[in-house]
């Protein structure tokens, strides 16, 4: 299965991605730590964000940078 994991570089996301890949899945990771996921200042995906062709599932694990303000 072809999966996109938004927030896939975080504590939970990285472990999930490893598990999914070991099961034979193709996983595209979008992470704020490398600039491909949500922007740390705004909590929005970048303007050039895209889902790879053939994506069959999306897992959203990203945390808003404003979660403490709520």
Q: Can you offer a commentary on this structure?
A:
By secondary structure, the protein is α/β, with parallel strands linked by helices. 17% of the residues lie in helices and 20% in strands. The chain contains 1 helix and 3 strands; from the N terminus they run E-H-E-E. It has one helix spanning 11-22; strands at residues 2-6, 26-30, 57-60. It has a 3-stranded parallel beta sheet with strand order 2-1-3, covered by helices on one side. Helix 1 (11-22) links the parallel strand 1 (2-6) and strand 2 (26-30). The termini are far apart. The mean pLDDT is 91.
Q: Give the fraction of residues assigned to helices.
A: 10-25%
| N→C terminal distance | 36 Å
Give the oligomeric state: single chain
Principal-axes shape call: globular
Q: For the report, how would you describe the main beta sheet?
A: 3 strands, parallel
Regions with little confidence, pLDDT below 50 for 5+ residues: none
Compute the number of helices: 1
Strand content: 15-25%
C-alpha Rg (nearest Å): 12 Å
Class by SSE composition? alpha/beta
The total strand number stands at 3
Helix and strand element order = EHEE
- Give me the side-by-side strand order of the main sheet: 2-1-3
Mean of residue pLDDT values: 91
């Amino acid at each position: 299965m072809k999966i996109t994991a938004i927030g896939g570089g975080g504590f939970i996301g990285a472990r999930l991605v490893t598990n999914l890949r070991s099961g034979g899945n193709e996983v595209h990771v979008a992470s704020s730590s490398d600039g491909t996921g949500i922007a740390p200042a705004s909590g929005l995906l970048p303007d050039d964000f895209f889902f790879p062709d053939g994506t069959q599932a999306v897992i959203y694990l990203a945390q808003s940078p404003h979660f403490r303000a709520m």
